[in-house]
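A quick aside before the break. I want you to see a complete sequence-to-structure record at least once, exactly as it would be stored in a machine-readable document. Don't worry about memorizing anything.
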Amino acid sequence: MSEQVDSKRVESGKTNRVQIFDTTLRDGGQTAGITFSAEDKIRIAERLASFGVDYIEGGWPGASPKDDRFFELARERDWRHSKLVAFGSTARPGDKPSRDPGLKKLVASGADAACIFGKAWDLHVTKALGITLEENLDLVRGSVRYLKRHFEQVFFDAEHFFDGYAANHDYALAVLDAAHEAGADALVLCDTNGGSLPYATGAMVREVVARYPDKIIGIHTHNDSEVAVANSLIAVKNGAKQVQGTINGIGERCGNANLTSIIPCLVLKMGLDCGVDRERLTELKGLSDFVNEMANRLPWRHQPFVGLNSFAHKGGIHVSAVRKLSRLYEHIPPEAVGNQQRITVSDQAGRSNVLVLAAKTGFGLKLDGSDPAVAELVAEVKSLEDQGFAFEAAEASFHLMLLRAKGKLQHFFTLEGFRVIDEKRGDDGAPQAEATVMLRVGKKFAHTASLGNGPVNAMDKALRAALQDFYPSLKEFRLVDYKVRVLSTSQATEAPVRVLIESTDGERKWTTVGVSTNIIDASYQALLDAIEYKLMLDEVRP
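That is the input. The structure line, written in tokens, reads:
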């Protein structure tokens, strides 16, 4: 189904209602390289609640002081719709559920609901737990029954269900029967190892849904086979009414099912109500970016729906088409998920790319297809990209080219010369970098020298020291990222390099590019563009 879904279908009754169960704070927090503080988790939980997910799994009470602190902080929550879930396991073997310390901590957590996992694969029961199959069923039954005396809602995660179903069909279903008999509000089928494929997942979910027509069946998938989203959607197609996943698909190993892909698919493509209406869906990219920020994680630029390049167009034919009708090369309107169309420029660019980018520079450029500057720019871009420049990643440098082509680029200073010295004495000595810069602003000269942490940093500091008296706004200017790429491996150390520099003034970010066989010269080109772009943005005059 296309994105043009009748809104009445989305808003009608509960027949199509799918619950969203977010486990970013628990499963997502187990991602290698990601650590959330208790305060981070509260901030993310508040954002998830504002977005409108049904359930927010906060963590495992008792597992760490951080999780305990989170649940204490969460007692002050005031969520209109979302419910806080505490996670844990069935009682330990040999212990009655009413005496199990883990289950008691779930009860004392202050959460609205509990979710516990139990073994659904006979191999795990006998090898990992070291108990009989019947004893495991008793643990599942007793643990759910105990928690139901304390929580209005209890969810049961059937761990390794799909592997268990394939190995011992009857026993995997017997585990679900035990949780069902004890009163679990949802039976969640977990692809814990992430090895199931959609055709098998759909068939198994369909059988379970038919077996428990009065019960919510959930799906919890991992992405080890790169099909966690597909498995989740096929599960919903076959009757699952709860989807568990994480924002941006973070999680152990290869991650969990990605809710930033699943939610728009449910709403825009399957026409289902998942508690997130079309208005809130426009907050999806902001939510994705926020979680990445809290995780101290660089966003995946090609992430579907919310990535920087999700709706980027590079080929001239594509750009020409989307200027007429965006649906020709976009499966949904970017604005539906809070994203935006992005036109890049490269050796595959045409006039359409230049015209679109000119309109977006913010410098008031007005071009049309008959303008000679357009044809010149297209030719120049193709020539420079052949030399190794990459303007799709450095739009600020391209904007300066546009201004130059139209005779509107203000030159704020002229370089007379620079020298960079990088010195190291002895194998154990720390290298020392010094840059000297001489430049002219109008009729005045500036001559400065600076030490730096490497030659590029030294040159950056020397340039800014020379210019700040003339342009005080450069005090706000700084580099936030610096990338170097060798463009020809066959030429070894003689190869040209491309330098990309990302800069900010605290409010805006922009990227510039330089190419040379000399890494210092390439860095200077990118740095020069970065400074000139900043000064053009500020409309500074000497």
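Two observations worth writing down. Confidence is low (pLDDT under 50) at residues 1-14. The radius of gyration is 29 Å. We'll return to this after the break.
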